[in-house]
Each structure stands twice: as C-alpha cells, then as structure tokens.
2-oxobutyrate oxidase (Mycobacterium branderi), 308 residues
Amino acid sequence: MRRRLREVAHEVGFFYLTGHGVPAPLTRAVLEAARRLFALPQADKDAIAMVRSPHFRGYTRLGGELTGGQVDWREQIDIGPQRPPIGGAGQPDYMWLQGPNQWPAGLPELPGLVDSWDAALSRVARTLLRHWAAALGSPPDVFDAAFAETPATLIKIVRYPAGAPTSQGVGAHRDAGVLTLLLAEPGSQGLQVRGRHGGWVDVPAREGAFVVNIGELLELATGGYLRATEHRVNLREAADRISVPYFFNPRLDAQLPVLSLPPDLAARGGMRPDPSDPIFAVYGRNAWKSRLRAHPDVAEAHGYSVGS
C-alpha cells in the first residue's frame, strides 16, 4: 500500500482517498452548514469580511480574491486555529497569520462543527504523512515535530456559483503548505489538475472520497520527488458547487526536514526552481507570500508590504 501511495503521489500529485474513517454524518453536516452559510444575507457575510482581520480570517465576497493577478469568482470563508494574536514588533510579518477567527452571527453551530472537522481531518493528514515518510525510507515520525503544539492548519469553505461571468473559479496555482484534503459535493465538476505532460485533467468529486493534493513544502522536503501539482477550478461548464479544502500545515515558524531518499528515488526527483515564485522553507514565509498576492486589499488595510 505504501509503495502505491508513493508512486501515485510521485506520478500525479493528486489522488482520491477512501477508507479514511471520517464519519459520513460529519461530512454531510459540513456541506449542509456551508449551504446555510452562503444563504445568509450579504450584509451578514460582509460583517465578517476578511479585510477587517489582520490575520487573513473571515469572508471574501465574489470577485474579492486574486490568483495570478486575475479575479477568482468564488465566495468563501477562511478559518484557522482559534488562538491569540502573536504578530507585531520584533516578529516576522508572517506571525500575523495567527489570531482569532470571525464567525457569522447567523450560524452559531459553525465553530463547533469546524472544530470536529479539524480534529477528524488532522488524524487523516498525520496518518498520510507518516505513511509517506516510511515509503520514502525515513522514520514514520520524521515530520511530527514540525506539527507539534501549534500547527497552522487552514480551512476554507467555498462556493463556486453557476453562471459566472468568468471561467476562473480559482486560477492555476500550487498550494503553499504540506498537503490538502479536499471535500467537494459529490458529482460536482470544475476542479482540474495540470497533467504530467501538459494540458488539464478533470477531477470530478466522488462520494465518500477526499481529493489529496501535494503542497510546496512536501516538494521541498522530498527534493522534488513529490511535487506540488498545479491545479485550478474552471467554471465554464460547472454548476453551483460547494468545496471545503483542508490545508494541513506545520507551525508558522517550522521548517520540514529534508529527507534523505534512497538513491533510486532521489534520482527521480529534482526541484523546479522558479525565481518568480520561490518556495520558502519556513512555512509561515511561504504562506505569507501567497496571502499577500491573493488578498492585496487586506495587505493594504493593515499596512503589510507585498515584498515583506
């Protein structure tokens, strides 16, 4: 099983995961809560707009986010671990990514539901990482220290509307963290992955399955054997859909160890340096890069420099 996991992650970077043990009633509850969230009056959602948060938490309305400098057509709420702020003088700017969430007053059940979702998916993600480490010739717990105490997980609850004025639900990008577990409404369309030899491959949602995606930090940690795969959401033929990506990330100041791969695997690796989009080894710095680009309005509102 571990060999198959290693190979499919190496060859494609995306795959479906079943048999994960996340209860189906919890999954249904998350999707149902997402529908109730986006059905709230626009004024209620705007009351928790991300631009109000120095921690990049809260609601983003349609057209309020950028990828590759182009407008994404989705609405969403960004939620992280509920902790006190630690950003400020003497700290790296990325420490502002820790802080409290903003919750919609009309959905009082959401915080508790998100806590349950985080706990369930954290177990899945940690298990996956341990299997990957072992499959790559390292101790299963080699990554554990980076996730101790205060992992900087991120949950997005996203709605892609039908009849959008653009095909870009979210533009082509790679995830800045370690791995992503994506829940999408069964049967929904729109997610596409860059094929190994170019072109886009459709990844329709499947009942009971998560879509797993490799992040940039795992690419760095494996010397490019596992690669962060470029992906996007294309709305051209998509119906209204809900998507809930879970980004499993280490502490903001953590740096994943670089694994010593067996020679046959190391020979199949190799990084892809891109001076215009470097991968920073410290997670917080890599995440900060992505947040500033995606939400320049938040950066401007709180005096953050895009070059910081």
About this structure: The chain has a mean pLDDT of 94. The radius of gyration is 18 Å. Residues 30 and 113 are 7 Å apart (CA to CA).
